[in-house]
Structure formats: structure tokens, C-alpha cells
Amino acid sequence: MLAIFQAAGWPIWLLLIASIVATALIIERLLYLRRGKLLPKKLLDEVVQVYRNKQITPDVIDKLEKSSPLGIVLSAALRNVEAPREVMKESIEEAGSGVAHTLERFLTTLGTIATLAPLMGLFGTVVGMIEIFGSQNTAGSNPAALAHGISVALYNTGFGLAIAMPTLVFYRHFRALVDSFIIDMEQQAVKFVDIVHSKRK
């Protein structure tokens, strides 16, 4: 592996750093973006039960808020449970936008790496081509320098694409996952608002 990196020249180290960062972010997002952790199955039922039993206290709301992202959205609804429907929905939307920002953390970086990796590979290719033309002189071409230039060009192109493809797949996957989580949270929060206001009528 070290021999490959040496043959690929200095531009490959930029790609290596990008691949390490992308791998770390992918692992972090895989561990964080789990449905059971972000949207506990029975949480809405528990919140409805707390509301119906009139057990809403500041401690209960704080505990709910710290439990999960869905808990943050539902705790905003509980804080405004006596308010009109519009105020409840507005507080839920504000809490939801904050949760969405947390769920989308690092996705911009991942998308940037997916876009930038082929360009970094292309940059390495250009460096290799410069070395190839630089090896030409009046006495003819230097075979060793020519071979090194070709290695730099091909290895960097290959590594750039090898990094970009899986990174782009994971970026798209995480993007879709976050969107589905946000929609699910909104639906559960609206369901709770409907339960609260149907009971008032």
C-alpha cells in the first residue's frame, strides 16, 4: 500500500485525508441515525398517556426533551398544551427546525467530499501529466520519469473515483433517511395536537 502511495505522488495524500474524514463521518452518521434511537416507537403513546392523566410537570417535560429528537418536538407541544392550536403547531415547527439541523449535521461535509474527490483525482492527473511532459528533453524521454508521471495520473484518478462513489451513495442515503425522520416526527407531533384539541371540543 505504501508503495502505491509513493508511486501515486504527493496529490494522493490529499485524497487519503479526504477518505479518512469521509469514513469517520459515515461511521458517525450510521451510529447516530438509527430510527429506534431517534423516534422511539412508544414515545407518542407515553406522552398522550401523560397528557390524559394530567401528569405534565416541568420535570416530565425536561426528561422528555432529553430523551430523543422526537422527545424535543413533543416536549415543545407539551409546553404549549394549553395554547391555541396555531401556537402549538408553531412551537412544534420551531423545535422541528432545530432537530432537523441536528440530524443534518456533517451531511454537507460528506456531500462536499463526494463532489470534491473526483476533482482532487483530476488535479492529481494533471500533476502526473505535467511530470510526463517535464520528463521530455532534447535527448528524448526519461523512461523512469515517464512511468512515474503515468502512475501519478492513473492512481489519483482511480482513488478520486473510488472515494467519491461510496461517499455519494452514503450521502444520498443519509439525506433520504433524515427527510423520512423529519416527516415522521411532524406526523406524530400533528397527531398529538389533534388528540389535544379533539379532547377540548
From TrEMBL:
Pfam families: MotA_ExbB (PF01618). InterPro entries: ExbB/TolQ_transport (IPR050790), MotA_ExbB_proton_chnl (IPR002898). The keyword tRNA processing does not apply. The chain crosses the membrane at residues 12-32, 106-130, 150-171. GO terms for biological process: protein import. Coiled coil: none annotated. Keywords: Cell membrane, Membrane, Protein transport, Transmembrane, Transmembrane helix, Transport. It comes from the Bacteria. Residues 68-186 form the MotA/TolQ/ExbB proton channel domain. It is found in: Cell membrane; Membrane. GO terms for cellular component: plasma membrane. It is a multi-pass membrane protein. Signal peptide: none annotated. Belongs to the exbB/tolQ family. This is MotA/TolQ/ExbB proton channel family protein.
